[in-house]
Amino acid sequence: MPRIHFQQQLAELKDKLLAMAALAQQALDCSLDAYLKRDALMADHVHDHETAINAAERSVDEMAYDLLAMEQPMAIDLRFLLAVIKINGDLERIGDQSVNIAERAAELLRHPAVDLPVDLRQMGELTGWMIRVAIQALLDGDAGMARSVLTMDDSVDRINSETHQKLVEVMQAHPEWSQQSLNTIIISRNLERIADHATNIAEDVIFWVRGADVRHQFSTAAD
Amino acid sequence: MPRIHFQQQLAELKDKLLAMAALAQQALDCSLDAYLKRDALMADHVHDHETAINAAERSVDEMAYDLLAMEQPMAIDLRFLLAVIKINGDLERIGDQSVNIAERAAELLRHPAVDLPVDLRQMGELTGWMIRVAIQALLDGDAGMARSVLTMDDSVDRINSETHQKLVEVMQAHPEWSQQSLNTIIISRNLERIADHATNIAEDVIFWVRGADVRHQFSTAAD
Q1: With a cut of 0.85, is the ipTM above it?
Q2: Res B98 pLDDT > 90
Q3: Which residue of A221, B36, B147, B190 is 20 to 30 Å from B221, comparing CA positions?
Q4: How many domains in chain B?
Q5: Domain that residue A69 falls in
Q6: Is A65–B78 a contact, with Cβ atoms under 8 angstroms apart?
C-alpha cells in the first residue's frame, strides 16, 4: 500500500476520533443540562449518547489496530496510533462519567430543589473547555496548547475540594439536605474525573508531538 | 533480531507487567488496611506505592513501545502488546483509586469511629480477587477465566448500590454520622471503579486470546 494512501487513512482515523470526541462532549453537556436545569429527559438522553460512544470507540480501535497490523508504521506514525488508542479510551470514560452525572441528576429530581452554596456550572464549563482544548491540541499538533490543559486541571481539583468541604458543612447544618448535598458531591467528583481524562488526552498529545513521555513528570519538568 | 530473542523480550515484558500488577494490588491492600484498621501509617504508605507504580507504568510502556517500533510484530504478538499497554493503564488507575481510598481513610480518622451497617471488607476482598483472577487469566492465556471476572463485576456493582442506599439512610437517621457515611460511600465508589478496571483488564485478556473485541458486547454475546 503506498504511503500516500496510509496518510489518507491516518487522516480518516483522526476524523473518526474527532467524531468520538464530539459525542463525549455532547454526553457531558447533556448531563450538565440534566443537573443544572433539573431536566429528566436530558438525563435519559445521556444513555443514548453512551450507546453511540461505545460503538464509535470500537470503530476507532479497530481502524487503529488494522493500521498497526497492516502498515507497520514507524516512529511518529506509530506514536500517533498509540496516542489515538489511549485518547479513545479516555473519551469513552468521559462518556461513562457523564452517565454517572446523569444518574445523580435523576436522583436529585426525587428530592426538593435547594439552594446549595456551590456553583458546578463554572466547574462544568471549565471541564468541557479542557476537553475542547486537548482535542484542538491534537488537531493542531500543538504541545504548548496541550500543556495549558494540565494547569487547568489544578483549578478543577481545587474547585472539587472546595465543593466537597462546603457541602459537608451544609450536611452538618442542614441534615434534611443530605441527599442533595451527597449527590452534588458525587457530581463534583465525576467532573474532577472527567478533567483527569482530559488531562490524560493532553499528555498523550504531548507524547505524540514531542515523542517524550511526560506522564507523572510534568510538575517537576524544567521545560 | 531473531524471533527467539523477540519471544524472550515478550516474556520479559510480561514479567514487568506482573510486577506492576503486584504493586497495584499492594496499593489496594494497604488502602483497605488503612480503612478497616484505621491505620494512618498504612494510609501514608499508599503514596509510596503510587510513586513506584508510576515509575513501573513508564517502564512497561516504554518497553512495549520499543518492541512495537523495532520488531513490527504481527497478529497475536501485536494484540498482546496492545493489551499490555491498556492493562498497564488500568493498573495505574487502580493505584490512583487506592490513593483516593487512603485519603478517605485518613479523613475518617479525624472523626469518631461509628458502627455503620455496611461491610466493605467483603467488597474489598472481592475486588482484590477480580484483579488477581484477571492477571492469572493473562498469565495462563485463559479467556474463560477472564470471563469469570466480568460476572464478579456485577456483584461489586450490586454491593456498591446497596452500600450507597444504606448509608443514605444512616445519614438521615444520624446526621451526626454524615462525615463517616459520606467517606464510606466514596470508598465504596472507589472500590467499584477498581472493579471496573479489573473488568477492563479481563476484557483485554479476552481480546488478546480470542482476537475479538468483547467490550460492550459481553452481556448480549451468545458465546
Answers
A1: no
A2: yes
A3: B190
A4: 1
A5: 3-220
A6: yes
